[in-house]
Amino acid sequence: MFKNSYGFAELKWDKSVESAISQIKERNYVSALKDYRGNLILAGVTYDKKDKKHSCRIEKIKI
Fold this sequence. Notes:
Blueprint: E1 6-13, H1 17-26, E2 39-48, E3 53-62
Parallel strand pairs: 1-2
Antiparallel strand pairs: 2-3
């Protein structure tokens, strides 16, 4: 599924995984690969300081 793909990861603590993915999209991180055509992996990873748990969301997009 992720073969020959590039990706971006955003790490947050005490936030939602949706906010991490949204930041990648809103701040247009993808523009750093403006000449790339193919699959991109967006990964949002969060850490809850109180519960000591990690959450992750991965999206695959094509540009």
